[in-house]
Design goal:
heterodimer, A: about 600 residues, alpha/beta, Rossmann fold, 4 domains, seven-stranded mixed beta sheet, 20 helices, about 35% helix, about 20% strand, B: about 200 residues, Pyruvate-ferredoxin Oxidoreductase, domain 3, 8 helices, binds thiamine diphosphate
């Protein structure tokens, strides 16, 4: 009997982990992977699930779970794997005891990330089996298979989603027997040669990894049912995986297809058999030509084409262009574009966002600002234009210090959010202090991980499963390290912020300044009040426009017609009062 | 049945995602294969939001080809123009009669569109315009605007009102349900095809 639900692949991953009897689960949020653990939290009666402080720790916790014999899960977005790669690269040598599944969500097309990278390359690099579901049902089924495989071959397994699969919902049959899984934990093994990756043991492990990879290659070529040939017109044979498979079915549906649900280790024998049975081989994959290069390396000829497929998100339209090029039997529909010249809708800091005041001040102080990743990255855009650079989580502090060392002469600071500070800010501020820098690190402390949809963090006083947690005091951490100059300022007090920042940016010693103010959405303050502009007092000076608040809207022009008075949209205003503080003519006041 | 492609567009915070979720689950309840795909993330507040629903006997790609949407539902007037290229030549368009001024315009960085109505009429000569916000306010809460729109969508999809209401009952918290059901019925009534 079937038991159907309507789930995104992210949700399916969580449901499968529950059914597989996962016991230890650790992750750090990141679009498009976040909903996996938000869903998993519903099962916290049987799964110990948590938001770790970063992906490396998440990976280490999941590895610990696996070493102790429990089925374990770890999830992150693609760039998270860069952070977590170190423990993975060695646990792949040690090998799993309890099944360990690592779910990575790539973001082809950079919908919500700082870069585009293809995690399949890292799966090969780490020599771990890789599953690539094309839809939610496959995500569910492959997760179950991955837990089993991990235990059978004692290897961590990777499941790769992409933004499109993560955020597409389809029907999923979770099975009539759906419920909490009871996978028996494997008995813990105390064995140095097995668990201690010191050189003498690691050399032995290295040899075992080679052997394991070949056994897994046999599994992927002849045992698993997720790799399958779908017979069709043999004049063309298409090798494909992941979401690309779905597009191939729509655009090249009549041809023979080799669908690889498990693409690493590459099932060479199966590929050879498939290639031998078709006239021409075409490889269709999203992002890097990972499969195509392996097929070519086997000496198999692959259809060459000019249609570019190796970056950004694929879609059926791009495959149609490919088909028009290589088969010439389809017309590309003329697409009617009417969007030329429409004003854009970029994301903006919310009305009332506690980050806004800082950027107003830094912009005024003309500081050089090494930025970081979070909602506050939006402080880089006009009219705030306060942030100079953004690289990766935690980079702001080291980047600012490097600029100082390079002799950059200006007021210099790093701006970092609280979740990002907990993720990878500690080491940065310690390095500045230890190596004699004078960088001011400004922590935007809104007590939540805003950007990814308001997940709790060590500053929130609560855990993923809703338990009360101690609150980490960032100022106390800095003082304990040896920082002499540590200040805490109310995020909504612009005057005080300016005074403190001027002093700290100009000081010769390093400092940490904590800007404290709650995220307006998570604190439920989006309707906390409304302000209005008195048109008889507004001199159209434009000071409030510099806040870049979505509620402050251009009004009437002045008599000269060059400048505009301000008005406040009562629907959007959330009553933070920043505008009152920057108005020199007392033209703005609270009406609710 | 032939696969039906529906694209819903709007601005973050308007409730497009709940509407597409209810649409997709209604199709699932009807026993069809369904895919619902949405792009959020950076678009959380004030950005353009797009979500796509495809249903039929067997659905593969979750993304709808450009020029292949049988129905384009725009929760905001300008967004209809922005996504015009997704609509099929024979497709229908449902436009919520509301303007949300983008920050790029309200802050003076980009010029406003002054001929919006003319352009909409030229691009979508057969569009159904719906003043969903006024209806929602009459019903008692402007936040159920999205269910007024769902009611209008229901006239253009092959599912019974009962099936839609069943999905809503499963999806919407009990204390808001009656309000939302009322909003749905009103949206369905005002756009009901005239009986000839
Ligand atoms: C390595 C890595 N992990 C996760 C993310 C996803 N991500 C982007 S910003 C962010 C956290 C932002 O939280 P915080 O620093 O508190 O700032 P806020 O958004 O609340 O202003 C996360 C987790 C990422 N970009 N890189």
């Amino acid at each position: 009997m079937s038991n159907e639900m309507f789930l995104s692949a992210n949700e399916a991953v969580a449901y499968a982990s529950y059914k597989a009897g996962c016991k230890v689960a650790s992750a750090y949020p990141g679009t498009p992977s976040t909903e996996i653990f938000e869903t998993l939290a519903r099962f916290s009666d049987t799964i110990n699930c948590e938001w770790a402080v970063n992906e490396k720790v998440a990976m280490e916790v999941a590895i610990g779970g696996s070493m102790a014999g429990a089925r374990s899960l770890c999830a992150m977005k693609h760039v998270g794997l860069n952070v977590a790669l170190d423990p993975l690269m060695t646990y792949t040598f040690v090998g799993a005891l309890g099944g360990l599944v690592i779910v990575i969500a790539d973001d082809p097309g950079i919908h919500s990330s700082q870069n585009e990278q293809d995690s399949r390359v890292l799966a090969r690099f780490a020599r771990v089996p890789l599953f690539e579901p094309s839809n939610s049902q496959e995500a569910f089924d492959m997760m179950l298979e991955a837990y089993e495989l991990s235990e059978r071959f004692q290897v961590p397994c990777m499941v790769r989603l992409t933004t499109r699969t993560s955020h597409t919902s389809t029907k999923v049959d979770v099975g009539a027997d759906f419920g909490p899984g009871h996978a028996a934990p494997k008995p813990y093994i105390k064995d140095v040669a097995r668990n201690v990756a010191a050189p003498m043991f690691a050399r032995m492990m290295r040899v075992k990894v080679r052997q394991r990879t070949e056994e897994l290659r046999t599994y992927s070529a002849s045992e698993t049912t997720v790799n399958r040939i779908e017979e069709g017109d043999r004049s063309l044979g298409i090798i494909t995986a992941s979401i690309a498979y779905e597009y191939v079915k729509d655009v090249f549906g009549e041809f023979s297809i080799l669908k690889l649900g498990m693409s690493n280790p590459f099932p060479a024998e199966l590929v050879r058999r498939f290639a031998a049975g078709v006239e021409r081989v075409l490889v269709v994959e999203e992002l890097d030509p990972v499969m195509e290069e392996q097929v070519r390396a086997m000496g198999i000829e692959v259809v060459e084409h000019k249609t570019e497929l190796d970056m950004m998100e694929l879609n059926p339209g791009r495959l149609l262009t490919l088909r028009a090029e290589i088969l010439g039997d389809v017309e590309i529909p003329v697409v009617h574009r009417a969007d030329v010249g429409l004003p854009s809708r970029p994301p903006v800091l919310c009305s009332g966002c506690s980050h806004r005041g800082l950027f107003y001040v830094l912009s005024k102080l003309k500081a050089t600002v090494a930025g970081d990743i979070g909602c506050y990255t939006l402080g880089a855009f006009a009219p705030l234009s306060a942030i100079d650079s953004v690289i990766c989580m935690g980079a702001s502090i080291g980047n600012a210090f490097g600029m100082e060392k390079a002799g950059h002469k200006n007021r210099l600071c790093a701006v970092i959010g609280d979740s990002t500070f907990f993720h990878s800010g500690y080491t940065g501020i310690q390095n500045v202090l230890y190596n004699g820098g004078s960088v001011t690190t400004i922590v935007l402390d809104n007590r939540i991980t805003g950007m990814t949809g308001h997940q709790v963090n060590p500053g929130s006083g609560e855990t993923l499963s809703g338990a009360v947690a101690p609150i980490t005091d960032i100022g106390a951490v800095a003082r304990a390290m040896g920082y002499q100059r540590v200040e805490t300022v109310d995020a909504f007090d612009i005057e005080r912020m300016e005074e403190v920042l001027k002093a700290e940016l100009d000081a010769d010693q390093p400092s940490v300044v904590i800007i404290k103010g709650p995220c307006r959405i998570s604190a439920g303050l989006m309707q906390a009040g409304t302000f209005a502009v008195d048109a008889t007092k507004c001199k159209a000076c434009g000071a409030c426009f510099k806040l870049g608040c979505p509620a402050i809207v251009r009004g009437e022009t002045t008599a000269v017609g060059k400048r505009f008075q301000a008005t406040i949209d009562p629907v959007q205003c959330s009553g933070c009062g920043f505008c009152v503080q920057v108005c020199r003519f007392d033209a703005i006041s609270r009406i609710r | 049945m032939k696969t039906m492609n529906i694209t819903l567009v709007g601005v973050g915070g308007q409730g497009t995602l709940l509407t597409s979720d209810i649409l997709a689950k209604t199709a699932a309840l009807a026993g069809l294969d369904v895919k619902k795909s949405e792009i959020h993330g950076m678009a959380q507040r004030g950005g353009s939001v797009i979500s796509q629903v495809r249903f039929g006997d067997e659905v593969h790609s979750p993304i709808i080809h450009e020029g292949a949407s049988d129905l384009l539902v725009s929760f905001e007037r300008m967004e209809a123009l922005r996504w015009r290229h997704l609509l099929a030549p024979t497709g229908q368009c449902l436009i919520n009669d509301i303007d949300l001024i983008p920050i790029t315009v309200s802050s003076g960085q980009q010029p406003a569109v002054t001929d919006l109505q003319e352009r909409l009429e030229a691009e979508f000569p057969d569009a159904v315009f719906l003043d969903a916000i006024s209806i929602a306010i009459e019903v008692g809460n402007q936040r159920c605007m999205n269910m007024v729109i769902a009611g209008a969508i229901s006239n253009l999809t092959p599912f019974s009102a009962e099936l839609w209401q069943d999905t809503m009952k499963n999806r919407i918290p009990a204390k808001l349900l009656d309000l939302n059901l009322e909003a749905f019925s009103r949206g369905r009534a005002v756009t009901a095809p005239a009986v000839v």
